[in-house]
Specification:
Structural class: mainly beta
Oligomer: single chain
Strand content: 35-45%
Helix content: under 10%
Number of helices: 2
Radius of gyration: 21 Å
Distance between the termini: 44 Å
Largest sheet: 9 strands, antiparallel
Length: 290
Amino acid sequence: MKKKLITLSAILAVFSFLVAGCTFGREEEDNYLDAPVVQVKDQLFPQVYFRKYEDVKYLSVYRWVYDSSKKKVGVAENVGIIYPSSHAGEECRFQDRFFVEDVNYTYFGRYVMNNGEEYVTSESEIVTLTNRATGPGYESHNSANVEYQKTPATDVYFLYDPAQKTLTVTDGNITRPVVSQEADASKITNRMILSHDNKRLAYEIGGLDAGDTVHLISLVISDFPYGGKFTYKGLVCEYREKNSDGKTLFVSWSDMFEKVQLKEASGRSYNEFNIDPLNVQNGLDYNPAP
C-alpha cells in the first residue's frame, strides 16, 4: 500500500495512553486513512469515493447526521459495503440510495483486510443533497420514504415459534421503502440484522407480507454452527450494484428499521432467542496425555 496504515488496536492503545486529560477522536487525522470524497452537486444520489488499497476484503461505509449547527446527531449508521476488487482504477465508489434530502451528512469507512486487520478513515466533508431531480421514476427522499412501512402501522409483528425457530409476519404487511422503487426490483432485497457475541450480521430474507416466514436456523447455521443466544435488531433494505462481469461493486442499506416486534403466541414480546448447537461431533476426544 502507498499509505502507512494504523490498526484499530493501535488506535485504542494510543487512546488508553492519552486518557489523562488529552483529547482524541476522528479529528486526529494522522491516525486515520484518507477521508472519502463525496459528490452531491447535480447528482441523484450522494456518490462517495474511497481510495483503493491492496488486499482489502471489503469496505464498510458509515454515515453521520449533522444538525444545522454542524453537531453530530445520534450514532453513525452502517449504510453499506464496497467490494474494492470489483472496481477498476484507483478509487472505489459507493452510492447512497437511502439518503434524505436536505440533511447534512458525513461519510467514513472501515477497511477489512484479507488477513483480518481493520483500518478506518477520517470523515468526509459535510455534504447536503438539495434540489434533487423529480419526475417519473424519481421518488421524494424524505424520512418516511426511506424506511419500511407497516400496514396497519401499529399491529404488525413477527410471531416467534420457539420449537421450529421461525419468525412469521403476522397481522399485516411490512413494505419496502418507497425509494427502493427507483431501482430494478432484482437489485433490491430485504435483510434481517441479528447479533451474536457482539457481532452483527445482515442476513438476506424473503418477502415480508403477512404469512411470510423466516427460518432462523438456515440463516445462521453457516456462521454459527454451534448455535447460541441471538438478538434480533431490525430490518434493512438493500440495493446491490454489480459490474459487467456480475461481481458486486457495492451494496447500499437503509437505516435499520426497529419498529417490528417479536412475540410468542402468548403475546410476550422480546428480542432474544436461543438456537441449540447445530454440529454433532461423532468422534470422541482421544488426544494424548499433556
